[in-house]
Amino acid sequence: MAPAATAILRETFGFDDFRAGQAEIIEAVSRGENVLAIMPTGGGKSLCYQIPALMGEGLAVVISPLIALMRDQVCALREAGVEAGALTSANSPEETDAVLDAIGAGRLKLLYMAPERLASAAALSLLRRADVRLIAVDEAHCVSEWGHDFRPDYLRIGDLRRALDVPLAAFTATADEQTREEIVARLFQGHAPRIFLRGFDRPNIHLAFAVKNSPRRQILAFAEARRERAGIVYCATRAKTEALARALQEAGHAACHYHGGMEPDARRLVEERFAREDGLIVVATVAFGMGIDKPDIRWVAHADLSKSIESYYQEIGRAGRDGAPAETLTLFGPEDIRLRRAQIDEGLAPPERRAMDHGRLNALLGLAEAQECRRITLLGFFGESAAPCGNCDLCDAPPQLFDATTAVRKALSAALRTGERFGAGHLIDVLTGNATERLRGLGHDALPTFGVGREFSRSEWQGLFRQMMGHDLLRPDPSRHGALRMTEAARPILKGEAAITLRRDTIASIERRPVVRA
Ligand code: ADP
Ligand code: ZN
């Protein structure tokens, strides 16, 4: 590592040491390599392009989608004595003139630009004339058409790179393979970048999941044990955010709701209150996210399961940015699995993409149904290895496991023998020998599987079906509401070629389990 980088870190930014990954990335960027760095939010990616910009000659252009964050960064850099400026729609004419002067005089080191600016011919010719040495792209996943942050103007970055013919350093917190490939193809266009994937562990965040049985009560209990501490509750629908915020208020908490259906002013008000107040709870859809920069969020709860493991990671990652202990709780149940599967199946994405999305949901369900340390499972998804963390619910209380092969085979054969046309409720009637009128009408009381599962209660079977869905052995049929179909993954178990272990503690008497860690 060139001594210059460490000197800049200390003298300009006032930090003693690099964080995980920073030094290697800075070295590669300052050598002029094309770089794609996948770093978690809060991991410190800004320094990875700011320091190389200050180490070398000329100007670095930073493309970022978040005007407010750009302005904050420019202010902070100027306070540290760095010549930095921004060109965004929020500029006053004087600000723009000052930036243009600084570029003209060759003084400016960092120029922040909103992607919309790339559409302007004037901006492009300005950049052509300036001594640009590096393009840095923040939130590089915005170039992916399939992500929810897609910005069409990001597609212009590739042209800019070609026109200026300088190295490009792209940064994102989104780690999945597909997005990565899209970034490489669209931003680097054949100039394969060096990829850095580092530092995904957030050891101060406690990870916990609980089976959803009474979500309102579970969230209220979790919030109650964290009274006066700032937190976010994520919900899958707008209506739920409003209802849950009201319930929290009635329980005496400072709480408000936030979703994409609110007026921009009302949303801004919530964002400002959250930043300013000490113990506010925001009950929100995922619309509350990108750009929240509050370091002391002490907890994040999910009243509904996220749509993928990346979304989950980003959402819980908003807690504890200051490094102090923070806690999370994610509720999940069969309805969540149904909802998320349906959203994928009913979406407009092409079939390959849908299969990929099911895979990313599977990864999250695997985490929900994990049988060992959650952090090992979570970091494994991001390609990092770990030892048992001591800071998750499964490290706190190791789960009870049992060989569920026989039970799973019974359930699978009940689904097959009834033509894969029924949901868990009916299949449980078959397994437990509950001869309802409907069941007799269908002749299902004559099936060989009728009553073969009496060793488990109804609620235990519900837990088993949830786990089977979580392990993707049974999947809701997109064309027939509620019906469960067996997946290919289940075939070896059905045929007796593979065994399966499930958790006993999340099926047995869920009601009596403490749902919340005090
Ligand atoms: P992100 O990766 O989300 O863009 P930032 O670059 O904003 O993260 O950095 C997150 C926080 O970490 C900032 O407050 C930043 O000042 C701080 N930070 C970054 N690098 C270091 C470091 N080496 N030592 C201490 N703090 C750091
Ligand atoms: Zn653990």
Question: Explain this structure to me?
Answer:
By secondary structure, the protein is α/β, with parallel strands linked by helices. It is 41% helix and 14% strand. It has 21 helices and 18 strands. It has helices at 3-11, 22-30, 46-55, 67-79, 93-104, 121-129, 157-164, 177-188, 215-224, 238-250, 264-276, 309-316, 334-346, 351-368, 374-381, 393-396, 405-417, 424-432, 437-441, 458-470, 491-494, and strands at residues 35-38, 59-63, 84-87, 110-113, 132-137, 168-172, 194-197, 205-206, 209-211, 231-234, 255-258, 281-284, 299-302, 326-332, 401-403, 474-476, 484-486, 501-503. The protein has a seven-stranded parallel sheet with strand order 3-4-2-5-6-1-7, sandwiched between helices. Helix 11 links the parallel strand 11 and strand 12. Helix 2 (22-30) runs parallel beside helix 3, helix 14 packs antiparallel against helix 15 and helix 17 (405-417) crosses helix 18 (424-432). The protein is elongated and about 90 Å long. Bound molecules: adenosine-5'-diphosphate and zinc ion. Residues 15, 18-19, 22, 39, 41-47 line the site of adenosine-5'-diphosphate. One of its GO terms (molecular function) is four-way junction helicase activity. Residues 215-365 form the Helicase C-terminal domain. Residues 217-273 form the Rhodanese domain. Keywords: ATP-binding, DNA damage, DNA recombination, DNA repair, DNA-binding, Helicase, Hydrolase, Isomerase, Metal-binding, Nucleotide-binding, Zinc. It comes from Pontibaca methylaminivorans.
